[in-house]
């Protein structure tokens, strides 16, 4: 025998040995290769080959394919997210009887819900998000009773969210956001007592309805996201009894009445988005949730004053949440567009971590909190159109990270500083009582793009330095 044939015989012997060890594995591999073929051999799966065929001697066993996870030699996970699959999920997928995880997220699959999955009786984790699945969610959906995590988000499912979902009592996460649902969501979701995350947001064609008050019986729920899904009526009074709540987002709905007095009670609550609703009345006084990072109550009809308790918050760190558009370019302390009166909380930046103070279009009085003068995380302060007065806390002008300072339409007094924060690009102080001269130090305001200071009490001449600022595009100094 030549070296090559010895090698080949040895290899075949090895493979043959592996083969005899597990006939079933071969059966599963046949199913996988059939899947690949059914999907018209997408390039993303070109490495799926039968390693036993002579032409693919150097391919690896299917349990080593990156998309496959095997447990004790049987296929348990099919991780096919982002594979450009544009064909259907075929019925024979249930021949992979031991699947516990299927991820087909972010493909181009267009069909109704593949009921064949009912036969994958060990399925715990199903992710079909970001495809073109359509039709209704079948009424016998409870046959997937073992599911712990379900994501059908960003598809074209329509109709109702069926009551049978309420029988999937092992569910920890339920994601049904951004679909074409045009019915109602089932109150039976309140049976899912193990649920930690419920995401129903951006179902914009949902029939207008109240948030079922029984949802507040979900004591393990940490994440509740129902933005822009036609909620109306009031927020259930018992919302504060959702003791595990961390992230509450009911923004962009038609919620009315008061914010329930218990809302800021869950101790771990960290994010509260209620912006763009029709909420009225006062903001609850009692805040037990001392780790809140972000509060956005903008664009409601709130009245009364901002509770002092907000000043006790310890962890106003602020995060960027670009998804939430203009309301959350920087989300921290946001109460803009209401009818709030009284003062801004004095201690909002005692820890020096606040990034944004956004309180424009209210009826707020008093001075800017002194703590803002020693708040180096601040990037944006927009408090225009209130009844604020007094001098600007001196440290604020030069606050290390400040980029936007909009103080227009108030009654602020004092003079402009020689120096401002290095990155300050927008300074708007129209319609106030600022006085003195425009300082010659203005030549150091290198990054200024917009400088609006109409209708104040400035005197003297406009320094030539102002016209030399390299980025300045807007300059208003009229009515001084
Ligand atoms: C489906 O995907 C394959 C590649 O995987 C591509 O060649 C084919 O054009 C796609 N078909 C459609 C209708 O997009
Ligand atoms: C062996 O592997 C190499 C690199 O992965 C590949 O280019 C080649 O086509 C494979 N040979 C066969 C017979 O599959
Ligand atoms: C599923 O796993 C069991 C052992 O857990 C095994 O006996 C059975 O053959 C596997 N089924 C398939 C289709 O591989
Ligand atoms: C599925 O894949 C997506 C995209 O990579 C990922 O975000 C998601 O967590 C995965 N889901 C499961 C259940 O593995
Ligand atoms: C489940 O499997 C059984 C037996 O193989 C088959 O008759 C049935 O049609 C399957 N169910 C679905 C929903 O595919
Ligand atoms: C779902 O989409 C497929 C493919 O686009 C289409 O043929 C089918 O009619 C749709 N079904 C429903 C119920 O909308
Ligand atoms: C919502 O309904 C409108 C009008 O019927 C339709 O044009 C739009 O595509 C629907 N949106 C979604 C996400 O289904
Ligand atoms: C929901 O949308 C589907 C598909 O567009 C339509 O056939 C059905 O009549 C709609 N149902 C309601 C209650 O509007
Ligand atoms: C709050 O969070 C901590 C730390 O994650 C956790 O141990 C605790 O159980 C949570 N409290 C509630 C009421 O869920
Ligand atoms: C609020 O309700 C009105 C009419 O009832 C509707 O036109 C509007 O789109 C709703 N707004 C939101 C954000 O759901
Ligand atoms: C604040 O945040 C830090 C880190 O994010 C965390 O360790 C701490 O427990 C939080 N709470 C308080 C009260 O500082
Ligand atoms: C602001 O408060 C003043 C004094 O209480 C009141 O006259 C005025 O109407 C309020 N403005 C708004 C927009 O609520």
UniProtKB/TrEMBL annotation:
<keyword id="KW-0433">Leucine-rich repeat</keyword>
<feature type="domain" description="Leucine-rich repeat-containing N-terminal plant-type">
    <location>
        <begin position="26"/>
        <end position="71"/>
    </location>
</feature>
<dbReference type="InterPro" id="IPR013210">
    <property type="entry name" value="LRR_N_plant-typ"/>
</dbReference>
<dbReference type="Pfam" id="PF00560">
    <property type="entry name" value="LRR_1"/>
</dbReference>
<dbReference type="GO" id="GO:0033612">
    <property type="term" value="F:receptor serine/threonine kinase binding"/>
</dbReference>
<dbReference type="GO" id="GO:0016020">
    <property type="term" value="C:membrane"/>
</dbReference>
<dbReference type="InterPro" id="IPR003591">
    <property type="entry name" value="Leu-rich_rpt_typical-subtyp"/>
</dbReference>
<keyword id="KW-0732">Signal</keyword>
<keyword id="KW-1133">Transmembrane helix</keyword>
<protein>
    <recommendedName>
        <fullName>Leucine-rich repeat-containing N-terminal plant-type domain-containing protein</fullName>
    </recommendedName>
</protein>
<keyword id="KW-0677">Repeat</keyword>
<dbReference type="Pfam" id="PF13855">
    <property type="entry name" value="LRR_8"/>
</dbReference>
<keyword id="KW-0472">Membrane</keyword>
<dbReference type="InterPro" id="IPR001611">
    <property type="entry name" value="Leu-rich_rpt"/>
</dbReference>
<dbReference type="InterPro" id="IPR050647">
    <property type="entry name" value="Plant_LRR-RLKs"/>
</dbReference>
<keyword id="KW-0325">Glycoprotein</keyword>
<keyword id="KW-0812">Transmembrane</keyword>
<dbReference type="Pfam" id="PF08263">
    <property type="entry name" value="LRRNT_2"/>
</dbReference>
<dbReference type="InterPro" id="IPR032675">
    <property type="entry name" value="LRR_dom_sf"/>
</dbReference>
<feature type="signal peptide">
    <location>
        <begin position="1"/>
        <end position="20"/>
    </location>
</feature>
């Amino acid at each position: 025998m030549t070296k090559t044939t010895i090698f080949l015989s040895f290899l075949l012997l090895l493979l043959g040995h592996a083969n005899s060890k597990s006939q079933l594995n071969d059966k599963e591999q046949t199913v996988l290769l059939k899947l690949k073929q059914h999907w018209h051999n997408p390039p993303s799966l070109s490495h799926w080959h039968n390693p036993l065929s002579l032409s693919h001697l150097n391919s690896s066993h299917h349990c080593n394919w990156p998309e496959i996870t095997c447990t004790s030699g049987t296929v348990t996970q099919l991780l096919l997210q982002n594979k450009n699959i544009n064909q259907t999920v075929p019925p024979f997928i249930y021949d992979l009887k031991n699947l516990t995880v299927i991820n087909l997220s972010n493909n181009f699959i267009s069909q109704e819900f593949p009921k064949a999955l009912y036969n994958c009786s060990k399925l715990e984790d199903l992710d079909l998000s970001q495809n073109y699945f359509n039709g209704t969610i079948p009424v016998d959906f409870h046959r997937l009773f073992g599911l712990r995590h379900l994501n059908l988000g960003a598809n074209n499912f329509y109709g109702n969210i069926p009551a049978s979902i309420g029988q999937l009592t092992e569910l920890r996460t339920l994601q049904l956001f951004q679909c074409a649902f045009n019915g109602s969501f089932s109150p039976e979701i309140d049976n899912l007592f193990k649920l930690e995350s419920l995401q129903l947001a951006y179902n914009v064609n949902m029939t207008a309805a109240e948030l079922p008050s029984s949802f507040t019986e979900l004591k393990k729920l940490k994440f509740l996201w129902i933005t822009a899904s036609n909620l109306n009526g009031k927020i259930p009074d018992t919302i504060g009894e959702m003791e595990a709540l961390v992230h509450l987002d009911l923004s962009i709905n038609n919620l009315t009445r008061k914010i329930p007095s218990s809302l800021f009670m869950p101790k771990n609550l960290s994010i509260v988005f209620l912006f763009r609703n029709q909420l009225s009345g006062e903001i609850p006084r009692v805040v037990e949730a001392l780790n809140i990072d972000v509060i956005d109550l903008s664009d409601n009809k709130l009245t009364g004053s901002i509770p002092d308790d907000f000043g006790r918050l310890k962890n106003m760190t602020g995060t960027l949440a670009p998804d939430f558009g203009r309301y959350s370019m920087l989300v921290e302390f946001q109460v803009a567009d209401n009818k709030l009166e009284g003062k801004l909380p004095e201690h909002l930046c005692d820890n020096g971590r606040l990034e944004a103070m956004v309180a424009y279009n209210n009826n707020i009085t008093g001075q800017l909190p002194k703590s803002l003068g020693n708040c180096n995380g601040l990037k944006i302060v927009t408090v225009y159109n209130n009844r604020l007065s007094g001098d600007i806390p001196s440290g604020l002008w030069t606050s290390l990270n400040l980029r936007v300072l909009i103080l227009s339409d108030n009654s602020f007094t004092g003079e402009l500083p020689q120096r401002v924060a290095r990155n300050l690009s927008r300074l708007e102080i129209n319609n106030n009582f600022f006085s003195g001269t425009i300082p010659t130090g203005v030549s150091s305001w290198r990054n200024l793009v917009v400088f609006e200071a109409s209708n104040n009490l400035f005197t003297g001449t406009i320094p030539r330095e102002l016209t030399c600022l390299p980025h300045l595009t807007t300059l208003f100094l009229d009515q001084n």
